[in-house]
Amino acid sequence: AETQLARAGRAAAIGLLAAGLAHDVKNLVQAVRSGARLMERRAEDPAEVRRCAGLLGDAAERGRRLVEAMLDFARGGGGEAEGQGVPLEAGQALLDLAELLNRTLGSGWRVKVVVPPGLPPARGDRAGFEAAVVNLAANARDAMPRGGTVTIAAWVEDLPESRDDIGLKAGRYVVAAVSDTGAGMDAATLARVGEPFFTTKGPGRGTGLGLATVRGFCTRSGGALLLDSEAGRGTTAAMWLPVA
Ligand code: ADP
Q: What is the pTM of this model?
């Protein structure tokens, strides 16, 4: 059930990115169409034809890069055991993902990544980590319907004593957190999030699988997902992952 959930979460993450990508591709195709029309109309003017050809080439290159980034992400979900036992460079993974998220979340939202140099490697597979970040970023976006900044940060925490209440053993952790300044959650919602299929987004919009898969990824890696949220102020979802 755990791997099935992880697969569902990854599929959901790919779907979220693909929806954003579809929008970008539509704009690109539009640009190519008008470039081609202009070229037809100005066929007698070599300078203008050359300029249009340049624009068309640029659009094609942007399209290629978009699809390439998407494929890279999708390929990460390859083998089941892939990446297991390989230390996770969470900071680099976040920096790599930021570009893809910035292109796919939508034009009203911006992703800001704050990662210190020299972050130690953590436990967790990269594919699961990426899917978790995409799910959290999509939630952060949805919590700010009028747009805003999604902040993704990573840092190190030392836990001197075990905390059974939040499911963390004493030790050193890499924390990767996604924050928004959006709707936040009331106590009743907070108590239920992470339950598979719990969603407040309405039919056809939410699956209620996002946080359940993020939580599953964290516990599988020996860590935990901690949520800090206040209605009307925003949410920070922090993935605590043991240092490898
Ligand atoms: P989904 O996004 O498909 O609804 P999730 O498991 O990711 O599924 O989230 C469950 C619910 O938790 C959401 O419907 C929403 O009510 C709440 N939630 C999750 N993240 C946030 C957030 N960043 N801000 C406000 N509410 C959130």
A: 0.83
